[in-house]
Amino acid sequence: MTDPAITPADLEQKFRSIQGEIETVSSDSKKLVQIAGVVGAVVLLGAIYFFGRRAGKRNSTVLEIRRL
């Protein structure tokens, strides 16, 4: 038996279905990357705040004023 001939319409249909799957996967991964970026930024800012506050306490000068 011979296989039926592949028509341009068959190719176009298959390419469109593949393109639709790729767009779905890319939109899902974009959302995941955005969420990861926001979480990473919040963690980074929290770490900067924590270590900056700690360094400020450690190196702060205590000034004592006495009245005579």
Features of this protein?
single chain, 68 residues, mainly alpha, 1 helix, 75% helix, rod-shaped
End-to-end gap = 113 Å
Q: Give the ordered list of helices and strands.
A: H
Shape: rod-shaped
Q: Could you describe the largest sheet, including whether it forms a barrel? A: none
Helix content: over 70%
How many DSSP-defined strands? 0
Number of helices: 1
Rg, Å, rounded: 31 Å
SSE class: mainly alpha
Uncertain regions: pLDDT < 50 for 5+ in a row?
Answer: none
Structure write-up:
The chain is built from one helix and no strands. 75% of the residues lie in helices and 0% in strands. It is mostly helical and 68 residues long. It has one helix at residues 8-58. The longest helix has 51 residues, at 8-58. The termini are far apart.
Task: Write a compact overview of the structure shown.
The chain is mainly α. The chain contains 1 helix and no strands. The mean pLDDT is 83.
What does the secondary structure layout of this molecule look like, with pairings?
Blueprint: H1 8-58
